[in-house]
Amino acid sequence: MGRTNAPVGGARPNLDTSRRFLTAAVVFAILGFAVILRHGWLLTRIDWISAILASGMLAFSYWLPDSERFTAEKVAKRDELFSQLAVFVLFLTFFSITAGSDTNPFNAHVRQAVAFVHGHTYIDAPNYIEHAQMGPYSYQLHPPLPAIFLMPFAAIWGLNTNQSYFSIVIGAIDVALAWRLLGRFRLTLNARKWLTVCFGAGTIIWHETVDGSSWAVSMTVAVMMTLLALDETFDEGRPAVVGLYAGIAALARYDLALVWPAYLALLLFWRRRAILDLFWFIPGCALMIVGYTAFNFARYHSIFDLGVASYLYTTPEAGKPLFALRYFPNNFFTLFFMAPRIDTNFPYIYPTFGGQSILTTSPAFLLAFKASWKRLDAALVAAAALLAAGPVLLYVGNGASQFGTRHFVHVFPFVLVLMALGNRRMDQMSRVLIVASVCLVAWGIWCIRFYGLPA
After folding, report:
1. Which of 69, 101, 133 is the last residue of a domain?
2. Are 81 and 115 found together in one domain?
3. Do the strands 349-350 and 341-342 form a parallel or antiparallel pair, or are they unpaired?
4. How far is 419 from 414, CA to CA, in rounded Å?
5. What is the pTM for the complete model shown?
6. Dist. CA 172–CA 178, nearest whole Å
7. H or E stretch covering 312
8. Residue whose C-alpha is closest to residue 213's, from 110, 306, 112, 322
9. 411-448 confidence digits (pLDDT tens)
10. Which domain holds residue 40?
């Protein structure tokens, strides 16, 4: 089956589209620098890098040859690729300016990367880093993929590697990949822009990116690999490539392994791939399984990850099972109903320590329900979202301390696809919901930055 959701006509970005993105990045950098300097705050290296990239790419866009010198196909490929780079630079600037100058001390991934570079799996874990203590050795609780990506930097800078910078770059890549994925659907260019802004600034991906903690980085890396898997699924649909990305994604969030059947169903029933071709999906999954078991065996002499269970025995959750049906009501309440806290002191409404529902951080997610459930692709993507969310709904903790519902961030790419399938054009209500989402996330980040996250 050929691709049925490719952008057509006016949906294709051109150089002017990219120039607007880059102009927005430059303007944001100028305004951000002005505010930072006026308050006597610190400009970071990534602030300067993003501003230089934005200015340089904007100037470069005017140097590019006119479209008339190339075939239409080459122009389309060039403009599409350049627009993806422009979105990356725009959100690199946006995230770096709004992240502030603080470096998050919860850098377990950097510590794991340093350990990998030195040929072992145990980490140097101070008390404030959540870890499993096995005899004399400390082991981090997170899947290994972010640490693997950090290894080249850890080989150069060691424990001085800045995990917050890494988080900002990954977050910007996530939004650029969301823009790329949205280009696989029959969206107007305006709708594609609005949905990209919603994904990058109207969800707690913004908060997780600028937070840069170990739990946050695990989520944003998982989102990156899931976006790549979905992009391939809705583009050429090569089972080997989809399997590779889907398998690697599960090394950042183990529960994403449960989504593998949904990818296979999309490839088989929607993309009409032959059953024999689907066997090429297996090597990527096998890579994850081998990596998962080898990592666990090196640490715990078990094929299973015993770290979280071991850590919980040192907390008030000791003795409780990790997953149980009785945890569903609390997690479901957190996801859909948990509201911010009202106080008599300014700013009167605060995020709560235990989380906040997606309806009070990203009401634009309601646009996912505009997708036609009679469509096979929409039904299968919705099934993937439910499979990814299932373990979290049954988990012993709801994710605190957090803003929003951070345990569900890895589900957001599937929700984005549903939003794309149901919103070919942006109507007034859709734009209102997206603007409201951006404002709500901005409010939460501002409150946490200046007033903290009250218990």
Report:
1. 101
2. no
3. antiparallel
4. 9
5. 0.95
6. 10
7. helix 307-312
8. 110
9. 999 999 999 999 999 999 999 999 999 999 999 999 99
10. 10-101
